[in-house]
Amino acid sequence: xxxxxxxxxxRAQISSAAVERxxxxxxxxxxxxFYKPMGIxxxxxxxxxxxxxxxxxxxxxxEKVELNGLLYVIERLPIGIEECRYINLTxxxxxxxxxxxxxxxxxxxxxxxxxxxxxxxxxxxxxxSDIYDVLTHLTFVFIESHKIMNRVLIGEDxxxxxxWLKIEQAVHIEEPxxxxxxxxxxxxxxxxxxxxxxxxxxxxxxxxxTENPDRFLDVIYWLGKLAxxxxxxxxxxxxxxxxxxxxxxxxxxxxxxxxxxxxxxLKKHGLLARPIHIISANMHSVMNSIxxxxxxxxxLEGQSDLSVYExxxxxxxxDLRKLVYERAVQEGMTFLPDTSGTNIDVQIFDTALIDxxxxxxxxxxxxxxxxxxxxxxxxxxxxAYETIDELLxxxxxxxxxxxxxxxxxxxAGILIGGKGDIMIPFAHINEGTGDNYPLExxxxxxxxxxxxxxxxxxxxxxxxxxxxxxxxLLKFFHDSTWGVIGLEMEGAxxxxxxxxxxKIRKSIPPQVKVRYAYYASDNPLETGSxxxxxGLGATGVKPTYLITIKILEQIFNII
Length: 559
Known about the structure:
This protein is an alpha/beta fold and about 550 residues long. It is built from 17 helices and 18 strands. The protein has helices spanning about 10-30, 45-50, 65-75, 130-150, 160-170, 180-195, 195-205, 215-235, 245-250, 255-270, 285-295, 305-315, 320-330, 385-390, 470-480, 490-505, 540-555, and strands at about 35, 85-90, 100-105, 110-115, 120-125, 155, 160, 240, 275-280, 335, 345-350, 370-375, 405-415, 420-430, 435-440, 455-460, 485-490, 515-520. The strands form 3 sheets. It has a 6-stranded mixed β-sheet with strand order 1-8-2-5-4-3. Strands 13-17-16-14-18 form a 5-stranded mixed barrel. A two-stranded antiparallel sheet has the order 6-7.
């Protein structure tokens, strides 16, 4: 009899299987309609997340509470969610017309509504990726809450430690804590969290809001309190999906409304037949690249273009940004704020109205028929397919758009480099499926050389969620023949829509040009350089504008 070989799996294989299991589980729970994250129905999701141990969630698999990961997640969830036992994921169902005040998380644009003391509604209008994002963040938060409970609960009769009693006393002080009270609370928190006094002190201010400087204390207290009520009273926290959300998801309802708004504007202003260039970027870099250097030559005399862009990025320089915006509006720019629920604002530039000799692109060589530039704000994950797919469809099924190029500028995690570096992909790989989308990128690494920013070219992986990645999986993608240089959430979805529109449906010209370039927001392979370590700040200004300028130079036939 042949001896059975002992086959062991690598950490990368285990992680890959965990990601796939999470993906399948979340879709199953959505179809089911509700589940209890810390109950039997949430077992698979919790186990997969603990097995995966994503970098962004730090010490999730250890007994001590993860502080930086908790801050990252809390900034992306609505204020007060830690107090809610019932979390309801809904579609846009009319709450904006009610007395409920919308709560928008500081780092994630989604409308949330506190229905009562126990319930928080979270609007999902950006597709499945939004659901995956919310569910993984909530699973992490609930796992951390049970760590707190395990450290403070003594026995089964509900007796708690002295540290917890002191935290409870501090929470019920109505006025903001003074220095002495705060440091006493931090001392007790450090025991409960399994962290040092200095670690807790460092992260404490990150949770603070203007209204509540001691929010960190409240978050920890409520997480621990609800976890204890689950354990002692079997009062489980529950996540539900509204029937209308389950009915609408996957039907491009919001993407269709969004694209119709754009096309109706183009029709109204006689722009539908003109050559069109679509750019997925932010709402400032294209406008500033064209107009800022000449508009602000008096206010910021003698400063380089980069210094001008850095000044415009500072929150206090509202007046400078207003000057640039007013000039852009005078010369053919229209701002279309989102009304569809996609949370994707749009700018439309009619280049026929731009006074090019008085801009940074005086050397433009545009044809007689001047193009229209559509700048759309960043999409989120699978939402990229929904929006671009709808935008590239014919207007009223008969008027085809003359789309000459689609350019994607985004943030991504880099696997060989550091924050602020630039990545140029020649293919996107869809994580978990092996689906791959090779492309002829009009942007090349050579275009960006000589500007003081490291540039790498290669394949990029489009992931289920940037917060779900760990070093083992990313190292495999990088070291294997896939040769992955970075990870992001939208590339494969954009390219899938562009390819189907240009190669199969023929709703846009088959020779449409595509441009992809990303700047590194983090390096998930380096401890201390993950997304939880903080934003880019001024580091992101130079790559953002360099990419934008190269895209515009190609559109304006300068290079």
